[in-house]
Amino acid sequence: MAHRAEGRRMSDVTLKDVAVRAGVHVATASRALDPQRRHLVNSETRQRVETAAGELGYRINVLARSLRKGSTGMIGAVVADLGNPFLPPMLRGLEEVLGPRGYMTAVSETHEDPETFRRVCEQLIARRVDGIVVSAAHVGDSDFISTLEKSLPVVLAVRRVSGGGHHTVTHDDVLGARLVTEYLAGLGHRRLAQLRGPEDVSSFAGRARGFQEVVAEHDCTEIVAHDRAGAPTTDEGKRLAAALLTADVGRPTAIFAHNDLMAIGALEALGEAGLRCPEDVSIVGYNDAPLTAHVTPPLTTVRLPSNALGRRVAAMMLGQLDQHKEPPTTVALEPELVIRASAAAPARDRAAG
Amino acid sequence: MAHRAEGRRMSDVTLKDVAVRAGVHVATASRALDPQRRHLVNSETRQRVETAAGELGYRINVLARSLRKGSTGMIGAVVADLGNPFLPPMLRGLEEVLGPRGYMTAVSETHEDPETFRRVCEQLIARRVDGIVVSAAHVGDSDFISTLEKSLPVVLAVRRVSGGGHHTVTHDDVLGARLVTEYLAGLGHRRLAQLRGPEDVSSFAGRARGFQEVVAEHDCTEIVAHDRAGAPTTDEGKRLAAALLTADVGRPTAIFAHNDLMAIGALEALGEAGLRCPEDVSIVGYNDAPLTAHVTPPLTTVRLPSNALGRRVAAMMLGQLDQHKEPPTTVALEPELVIRASAAAPARDRAAG
DNA sequence: ATGAAAGCGCTAACAT
DNA sequence: ATGTTAGCGCTTTCAT
Fold it and tell me: What is the rounded distance in angstroms from the CA atom of residue A302 to the CA atom of residue B294?
């Protein structure tokens, strides 16, 4: 822009310049260049304007347009951590449906920090995005989300907040955990444990609940870890699993890790304890992250329909953008158990014990 | 915004509203709310303005501000695929240095599609971002990048383009490949092969070159795959490796895969051919992606200083933003060989062959 | 079919 | 220390 360059830069070419060169009024130039209104202008004039624009290297100033029109055509996507394997497919799903409708998606990270989360959201509102997709919420963020909703359309993706009342699309984490736990119980396991992720994230809370429901229904025993993961990482998984393996109430025959990283950590802990998977202890993960099929043993885990989730989120956003005043609903998409080799029937002697 | 809501929304509160409520002129309100100019206003008046702003839930309209000031405080980051493991740390590096300087980073994906690439860049320029970080370039994009540079500061990250002449920060891929290949040669391997990624991406081109340099220097033989990967995926790696293992010129004793996914694919191909790694064939990957330490055997690979790269990129961007007219330079950051278990000395009989 | 004029919300130069 | 005025680049009535 002018303030920074000595000479005029291409982006400094303005609609007025184009109009002058084409010998028309800016209003006409504006019409000629807008797909929506080009039919209002003589096709010959339009030609002239288009040529002029091309020759000058004109690029519309979306800032000015947005200011005038009151909308930016931007959707902000706020995610906790781009390292999460389900995010790329989800973001792609968003683009796939928002893009053709003329919206551009901009992704920002919070790194799971509440303050950054708020700052990023405020920032996006200040920039007048037309809507925000929040995939970084913690369960206690309900009031804050309500605040945001006073300013613009919001859709919660992946993570819900307590209380409901917001437009949200999540994975069905309770179901996912039930799938895992029922599979384990069906295999004959009775002494089960879970490696829990941070409970202020609805995904982990849901998995914990699904697990416990099934444990209760099948009269299994939950071997409880005294601790829970600070962050759901490989190291934390290893630490928690190690504690579990030496529990004074006896060790579990199967472990449900709330995500694949912790499952891999548990695998490591097993190895260091001289135990084998799945012969001595079965392990199941969650997310079906890349490469989980290639660890040893290949990890049984849960696959999430993340691309579909992104598309649903986008559809819900469009609903709000288009003024369909649908009441807030939360839809939960069904995950799928991927059976590989890290879980098997418990050894005879242990099952009997 | 007004056009979409029936009632007035919080974001529709304007500076004028604040000024009226505080009983001052908008200009005064503007000053009072700007950290840079608050000292120009009586502290008592400032109080009144701040209170009024707080009560009304005023949020500055960055669109209007940017239009007036001629800069947006936004930096666009254009990446090929968020699934790439080196991107999150790099993006974080960007934020870490750009954030404190008042810039916000917005990430967009191209999915490796040239048309999307151009569209996204144009879009960002239309939105008047202050600069673009391009991490999705193909080697032939030099002219296009030059075009962009006419409009705004550009820094190339990770991938360079042919011809040079742009501000760029990359990983030293030639060095990385040399590290791998020298390690392999040092182990005693003489019959080497590489699994090449798409050659229109500088990273892969560099790795191919480093590999071939060392092969020539150590009088090794490159067993050439007739094919190359369309996309550097596990499946492609498996396909290429399978072909290599049945090559009529005899199979290699070591394979350098241009990334970890292809290396894992090669591991699979080995397994299906009844061969063991590293006893029969050594395999080395690239990127040190998550979980590569946990596959069997743990993958020897190359670790990239991606966070540092992001920070350097940001610094280079700030240099341009701050008008230091440094000439375009390209800096290449050194990667590091991570020795695990997928590469070992070749078996005696094969080494002799 | 085109032009004139107003204004989106803000900041900067210039008064006072 | 505060108010006045102009204008960033565009779109949108309203005239013609």
Answer: 19
B322 to chain A: nearest residue by CA? A4
Q: Which residues of chain A have pLDDT under 50?
A: 1-7, 350-353
Mean pLDDT of B62-69: 97
Contact of A205 with chain B, judged by CB distance below 8 Å, is answered with no
Please, what are the domains in chain A? 10-60 (1.10.260.40), 71-171+305-334 (3.40.50.2300), 173-304+338-352 (3.40.50.2300)
Burial class (CB in 10 A: 0-12, 13-18, 19+), B120: buried
Tell me the residues of chain B between 15 and 54 that have a Cβ less than 8 Å away from chain A: none
Using alpha carbons, list the distances in angstroms from residue B255 to A295, B101, B176, B286, B340: 20, 45, 15, 12, 15
Hey, are the CB atoms on B128 and A63 less than 8 Å from each other?
A: yes
Tell me the pLDDT of chain A averaged across its residues: 93
Distance CA B28, CA B46 (A): 9
Residue A102: Cβ within 10 Å count: 7
Task: Kindly report the number of other CB atoms within 10 A of residue A39's CB atom.
Answer: 10
Closest CA–CA distance from residue B57 to any residue of chain A (Å): 10
Strand partners, B332: B170
pTM of the complete model beyond 0.85: yes
**Dihedral angle, C-alpha B1, B5, B8, B14, nearest 10 °:** 10
Q: Which of B230, B192, B187, B130 shows the shortest CA–CA distance to B343?
A: B187
Q: Are A259 and A287 in contact (CB under 8 A)?
A: yes
Q: Which nucleotides of C are covered by protein (CB under 7 A)?
A: 1-5, 7-13
Question: pLDDT tens, A20-60?
Answer: 999 999 999 999 999 999 999 999 999 999 999 999 999 99
> What is the DSSP annotation of B134-166?
EE---GGGHHHHHHHHHHS-EEEEE---TT--S
> How far apart are the C-alpha atoms of B318 and A24, rounded to whole Å?
40
Using a pLDDT cut of 70, give the percent of chain B over it.
Answer: 95
Question: Rounded to a whole number, what is the distance in Å from the CA of A63 to chain B's nearest CA?
Answer: 6
Q: Which residue is nearest to nucleotide C3 (CA to C1')?
A: A25
Q: Is the dihedral of CA A314, A317, A322, A327 positive or negative?
A: positive
> For A67, which of B11, B63, B289 is closest by C-beta distance?
B63
Classify residue B10 as exposed, middle or buried by CB count within 10 Å of its CB (0-12, 13-18, 19+).
Answer: middle
Task: Tell whether A109 is within 8 A of chain B (Cβ).
Answer: yes
Task: Give the CA-to-C1' distance from B15 to D1 in angstroms.
Answer: 19
Number of helices (H) and strands (E) in chain B: give both, helices first: 13, 12
